[in-house]
Amino acid sequence: MSFEHSLDDGLSAYGWDAGLEQSFTSHRSAGLIPARVVGVDRGACDVITETGPLRARLSLPAPADPVESPCTGDWAALRPGPTPELVALLPRRGVIVRSTASRTSHGQALAANVDTAVVAVSLASPPNPSRIERLLALAWESGAQPVIVLTKADQAADPGQAVTAIAELAPGVETIATSAATGQGMDTLAAALTGTVVLLGPSGAGKSTLGNALLGTELLETGAVRAQDGKGRHTTVRRRLVPLPGGGVLIDTPGLRGVGLLDADEGLQQVFADIEEFAEQCRFGDCGHDSEPGCAVQAALASGDLSERRLDSYRKLQRENAWASSRSDARLRAQHDDRKKAITRSLRETYAFRDRQRRS
C-alpha cells in the first residue's frame, strides 16, 4: 500500500505523514497496517485505521515501565483479522508524563505524539499560578509547544489584565483569553493550534466546552461546576482523540487532580527561563541564591524583577522533581540488582547440573 493511498484513506487527518510511513516499512512487509490509538482500557484499545475505527486486542509484551504501554496518541502496527491485534508501537516523538503516587515510582503517560499542549485556566475563579507552572513543565518536557488558554473570559472583570498576569508566569508561551459562550478569542486560538493538540487542566477548567467550540459540535461531554469554588466533576472519564475541522487532532483528557513531575529538568528550565537567566549572572556557579555575594537572583528580587512566590515555586518544583527522579533511579537500581541475582542463580543451577552429569 503506497503512502499516497494511505493519505487518501484518511489517516493523514490524524497526523500520518511521510516520516511515519518510512518508519512503518518493515511492518507493512509483515502484513501489518498502521493505526492511531484513540483510547485504551481493559486490555484492549480503540484505534483509527486507514479504513476506519476498530477495537483491537493488545498483543505486545508488558513493558517494565508502564509509561511505555500504549496510550492515546500512539501510532501502532495492527495485525488485521476477525479479532484485530495491536502488536507493536512506533517510536514516539514525545509523550506527556506525570508522576504518580504509587510506590512503584513509575510515571503515567497522558498522551503521546503531541504537538501543541493547551493549558486550560478558568477565569471564573482565581487562577492557581503553581498549577499553571506544573502543567507548563509537563508540556515543555514532552517537546510540545504549550499555549495557555484562559477560558470563561466572559465571567472575568478584566480579561486583559488576567492575560498580562498569567503571561508573566510563562516566558515564550502565548496566552489567549477565550469564551466558548461568546466566541471571544476562538479564532485566535484556532490559528495557534497545530498538529495533535491535547487539552490539560483540572476539572472545571472548561476543557471539554473549549474542545466542543473548536470542533464546532457538542461531541465532548460537559458538566457544571460548583459555584463556591469553581471545581467541576470528572465528566471526561477517558481520553479521546478526534480530528479538528480545520486540520489536526484534538485529545481531551480527564481533569488532573494531581500534577506530579518526573524527570522534568528541561521542562522546568523552560518554565523558569527568567530565573535561569538571572542565575547565569551570579558571581558563583554553585550559588544557592540565598545570601551569597553577587547573587543576581537576589538582586532581581530586590529590584522587583522577580517575585518571592515565583522563586519559591521554582525551588519547590526542583525539589519535587529531584525526589521523583531519585525514586526512579532507586527502582532502576533494584531492577538491575534483581537481574544480576537471577543470572547468578541460573549460573549456579547450570554448574550444579554439570557437576551431577559428570559424577553420574
UniProtKB/TrEMBL annotation:
<keyword id="KW-0378">Hydrolase</keyword>
<keyword id="KW-0547">Nucleotide-binding</keyword>
<feature type="region of interest" description="Disordered">
    <location>
        <begin position="322"/>
        <end position="341"/>
    </location>
</feature>
<feature type="domain" description="EngC GTPase">
    <location>
        <begin position="112"/>
        <end position="257"/>
    </location>
</feature>
<protein>
    <recommendedName>
        <fullName>Small ribosomal subunit biogenesis GTPase RsgA</fullName>
        <ecNumber>3.6.1.-</ecNumber>
    </recommendedName>
</protein>
<keyword id="KW-0694">RNA-binding</keyword>
<dbReference type="GO" id="GO:0016787">
    <property type="term" value="F:hydrolase activity"/>
</dbReference>
<dbReference type="Pfam" id="PF03193">
    <property type="entry name" value="RsgA_GTPase"/>
</dbReference>
<dbReference type="InterPro" id="IPR010914">
    <property type="entry name" value="RsgA_GTPase_dom"/>
</dbReference>
<keyword id="KW-0342">GTP-binding</keyword>
<feature type="binding site">
    <location>
        <position position="295"/>
    </location>
    <ligand>
        <name>Zn(2+)</name>
    </ligand>
</feature>
<feature type="compositionally biased region" description="Basic and acidic residues">
    <location>
        <begin position="328"/>
        <end position="341"/>
    </location>
</feature>
<keyword id="KW-0479">Metal-binding</keyword>
<dbReference type="InterPro" id="IPR027417">
    <property type="entry name" value="P-loop_NTPase"/>
</dbReference>
<keyword id="KW-0963">Cytoplasm</keyword>
<keyword id="KW-0690">Ribosome biogenesis</keyword>
<feature type="binding site">
    <location>
        <position position="287"/>
    </location>
    <ligand>
        <name>Zn(2+)</name>
    </ligand>
</feature>
<keyword id="KW-0699">rRNA-binding</keyword>
<feature type="binding site">
    <location>
        <position position="289"/>
    </location>
    <ligand>
        <name>Zn(2+)</name>
    </ligand>
</feature>
<feature type="binding site">
    <location>
        <begin position="201"/>
        <end position="209"/>
    </location>
    <ligand>
        <name>GTP</name>
    </ligand>
</feature>
<feature type="binding site">
    <location>
        <begin position="151"/>
        <end position="154"/>
    </location>
    <ligand>
        <name>GTP</name>
    </ligand>
</feature>
<feature type="domain" description="CP-type G">
    <location>
        <begin position="104"/>
        <end position="259"/>
    </location>
</feature>
<dbReference type="InterPro" id="IPR004881">
    <property type="entry name" value="Ribosome_biogen_GTPase_RsgA"/>
</dbReference>
<keyword id="KW-0862">Zinc</keyword>
<feature type="binding site">
    <location>
        <position position="282"/>
    </location>
    <ligand>
        <name>Zn(2+)</name>
    </ligand>
</feature>
<comment type="similarity">
    <text>Belongs to the TRAFAC class YlqF/YawG GTPase family. RsgA subfamily.</text>
</comment>
<comment type="subunit">
    <text>Monomer. Associates with 30S ribosomal subunit, binds 16S rRNA.</text>
</comment>
<dbReference type="InterPro" id="IPR030378">
    <property type="entry name" value="G_CP_dom"/>
</dbReference>
<comment type="function">
    <text>One of several proteins that assist in the late maturation steps of the functional core of the 30S ribosomal subunit. Helps release RbfA from mature subunits. May play a role in the assembly of ribosomal proteins into the subunit. Circularly permuted GTPase that catalyzes slow GTP hydrolysis, GTPase activity is stimulated by the 30S ribosomal subunit.</text>
</comment>
